[in-house]
Amino acid sequence: MKKTKSTVRCGWCPPDDALYVKYHDEEWGVPEYDGQKLFAMLNLEGAQAGLSWRTVLHKRENYHRIFDNFDPKKLTRWTDAKIEKALLNPGIIRNRLKVRGVIRNTKALNKHFNGDLKKFSDFLWSFVNGKPIRNKFRKIDEVTVSTEISDAMSKALRKMDFTFVGSTICY
Q1: At residue 88, what are phi and psi to the nearest 5 degrees?
Q2: CA–CA dist 67, 75 (Å, integer)
Q3: Known catalytic residue: 125?
């Protein structure tokens, strides 16, 4: 969805950051059903834990390149040596737990969804009956960092051994 010059952007979107503005205008709040993109998004959000989304957004292309576009078939074949090589790359956040978390999430995806990204998407969307929730917040301080639904999703994912999937990340 392209925004026009008269579009009012959220206060959290830095107007001097073209990449962030593009993200706000074309991706943020847009329902995504593609399992591949959702798996990537889940892992990118995990990389963001404790940091700003802006940091991850500016490294996102590197993440896709380094992590084989978050393709579970390719990530399944990652070795410890490949993980160590990724940890040397300044194009990502070089946190060992987060890098290993991508592989752990891939193993969980394979175990519980047989690597089927459509099933993974269906599972995530099942928490909201397949339809996005349209909040009508008027002020930024009305926005919560989690909900009962994101709590339930986080709990279910953690039970399946996914990592970096806290309630705020799921929300």
Answers
A1: -90, -10
A2: 7
A3: no
